[in-house]
Amino acid sequence: MPTQFDPMVGETDAMLRARSAGTVSDEALADWIDRAMTAWTSPLALQGAHLLNDVLVAGTGGPGDSMQAARLWWSQERTAYAADPAGWDRRYWSRYLRRLASPDLGPDLSEAEVDRRTAASHRTARRTAEDLVREGLIARRDADDVLHAAGLE
User: In Å, what is the CA distance from 87 to each residue of 44, 58, 120, 137?
Assistant: First the structure.
């Protein structure tokens, strides 16, 4: 059921259904994904495009385990989005900011590399938080909560 709030989500939904039905080729799907990822701004639609890209890269030519998992995830996210688009976006951007504030630190890194990655991650998180607040994508309080939880504020 396409949402009235975001036509990009409806287009993603249609492409996911077409892929599930086996009515879109790998080449057509790849072209659609390229266009979607370079032109769209909707976080949910972009998540759907990434999801379809993962399915394509995994090599599933039609319905299968990964396609079924993709459809289940998409259905859950669409339902949550339809119920509260602004809330869905806020949660998305909060998760995004949380990931930025938490650098990927593998076990084999030197202390200096851990420090470098942590500092870079924290700078990026602070800068991104300001951008998200300025663009109205996240409330100042939500951004501050994420930064505080990461030990940055």
Answer: 12, 31, 29, 10
pLDDT tens for each residue of 97-108 = 998 888 878 788
Residue 118 and residue 60 share a domain: no
Same domain, 90 and 139: yes
> 30 and 52: one domain?
yes
Q: Is residue 16 part of a domain?
A: yes
pLDDT tens readout for residues 18-31: 888 889 888 998 89
What's the pTM? 0.68
Contacts for 77-82 with beta carbons within 8 Å, 24 or more apart? 77/44, 77/47, 77/48, 78/1, 78/3, 78/9, 78/13, 78/44, 81/3, 81/5, 81/6, 81/9, 81/44, 82/1, 82/3, 82/5
Structural domain span for residue 63: 7-83
